[in-house]
């Protein structure tokens, strides 16, 4: 269970606080006795059914989404949509328009803040990534430095899981929580986590064949580097041999789209794809003092 102190660190921002107030106007006007006369209650829209649908979606998302931030973002969106629908059904079209404009202004002025919780992900530049590829990146924490000294001249493989993202992608922003949680649990003297903003370093995106198009299915992306060489990637690339077995071009395109769009973004998927449990066991065998 997430400690309250961590939730406070992650969620006590104007974006989340103001969003709570944005979700209340309809309920205040609808149920406060001195204000409900502002609504034409003779219309009696199917409120109960709408409440059940919105509530059901919020509960469903709570069971499926990875982070509190993502769930809150989705829940706020549903409740604000509910407010727009109810204003419209009650004939308050002007209220709905003004509310939509206010939401747009709020979105621009108070965007959702980046993840602020525990993490062991290094923020990288293109030069840092180049150094990692040549095993020359040395900005490790003190524990890693001590463990590196304890190994003497023994050659040890270095693994880097690089999170490729863009600052404008909502999906990347949400996925960072999962990568951060994974980094806290699996960072070791051999396994490290980094992230690089591709909109700041487009040449890196080109080098790793990651599209920066607004409709790109390549983002977010995780790439595992072993001693600087790519040995794994999420989302996984569909092999030509697999596509060759599908004769219909539309089915080929559908498979590529599904594999890139519908891939599992859970921590379990990251661990299994990159075999992090195996790498950590290997580190314990090589350097038991560090664990």
TrEMBL record:
Task: Give the stretches traversing the membrane.
Answer: 12-29, 49-66, 87-110
Alphabetically sorted, this entry's keywords are: Membrane, Transmembrane, Transmembrane helix
Stored Pfam families: Thioredoxin (PF00085)
UniProt signal peptide: none
| Keyword Transmembrane helix recorded | yes
Matches recorded under SUPFAM superfamilies: Thioredoxin-like
Domain Thioredoxin, first and last residues per copy: 157-242
Q: What is this protein called?
A: Thioredoxin domain-containing protein
């Amino acid at each position: 269970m997430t400690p309250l102190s961590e939730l406070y660190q992650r969620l006590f921002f104007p974006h989340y606080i103001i969003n709570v107030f944005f979700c209340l106007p309809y309920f205040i006007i609808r149920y406060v006795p001195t204000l409900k006369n502002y609504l034409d209650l003779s219309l009696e829209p199917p409120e109960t059914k709408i409440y059940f649908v919105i509530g059901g979606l919020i509960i469903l998302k709570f069971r499926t989404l990875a982070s509190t931030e993502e769930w809150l973002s989705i829940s706020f969106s549903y409740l604000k949509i509910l407010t727009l629908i109810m204003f419209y059904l009650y004939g308050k079209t002007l209220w709905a328009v003004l509310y939509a404009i206010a939401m747009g202004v709020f979105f621009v002025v108070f965007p959702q803040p980046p993840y602020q919780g525990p993490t062991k992900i290094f923020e990288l530049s293109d030069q840092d990534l180049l150094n990692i590829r040549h095993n020359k990146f040395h900005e490790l924490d003190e524990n890693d430095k001590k463990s590196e000294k304890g190994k003497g001249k023994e050659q040890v493989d270095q693994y880097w899981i690089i999170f490729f993202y863009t600052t404008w992608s909502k999906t990347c922003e949400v996925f960072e929580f999962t990568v951060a949680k994974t980094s806290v649990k699996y960072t070791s003297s051999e396994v490290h986590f980094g992230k690089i903003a591709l909109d700041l370093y487009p040449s890196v995106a080109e080098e790793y064949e990651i599209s920066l198009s607004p409709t790109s299915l390549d983002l977010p992306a995780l790439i595992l580097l072993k001693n600087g060489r790519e040995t794994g990637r999420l989302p996984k690339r569909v092999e030509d041999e697999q596509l060759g077995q599908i004769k219909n071009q539309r089915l080929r395109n559908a498979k590529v789209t599904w594999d890139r769009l519908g891939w599992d973004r859970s921590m379990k998927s990251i661990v299994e794809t990159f075999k992090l449990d195996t790498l950590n066991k290997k580190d314990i065998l090589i350097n038991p003092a560090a664990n």
